[in-house]
Give the backbone structure.
Amino acid sequence: MKAIALIVVCLAGGLLVYGTVDMPDWGDPTSPASLHVSPRYIEKTVDETAVPNMVTSVLADYRGYDTLGETTVIFTAGIACLLLLRGMKK
Amino acid sequence: MISRFYDVIIQTVCRLLIPFIQVFGLYVIAHGHSSPGGGFQGGVILGASFILLCLSHDLQELRKRMPLKMILLFCSLGVMIYAGLGFLCLLLGGDYLDYGKLHLLFPVNEIQSRSIGIFGIEVGVGITVMAVMVSIFLNLAAPEAEN
């Protein structure tokens, strides 16, 4: 049984590695990810938000709704820890 | 009981270091506009400074400076600042989290008001992350103690 599992894992890993062959090069400017919205962020961030740090403007302004969700996730994690760990003492 | 093992050198060094760590945390939050950093990173640094206070002194010291009620208040306050800023933009006639409308409240133009909005939500994120870090640490460190 263990041998079968090992073969399956190796096969899946091999397929994943094979999948990476088709991926674009690191930092390739013509890759699909760099052609869609990235140029707009790079060119317009300072004009549109007056923030020199592109990462911050994407995180907090262009993707502000996403970051609100992230903050809520952290808040929920804290409350869940509180409830679980304080509940243990009873 | 554990406080017997605490050392005067460690206590003094940490007492001197903690204010600088906290100022650095505030700097990382406030300077997230133009350098690497922001609410998440600065909040973790601030939270770490409180955890260092607890490690170098004892739990009671941290409880005295930051009661659990205050930590819970900060947890919710940060999310409230963030969501509240979104609703404020809604009230001013924009979309949710559309900071451009904040220029009606501050004496800046529409583009700079986006920068102000970003700063506002970074502060909210920082407060929440700081409070959650301290809260998780306190609950892991002393789940059985009164807190």
In short: Helices of chain B lie at 8-30, 39-56, 59-65, 68-91, 110-141.
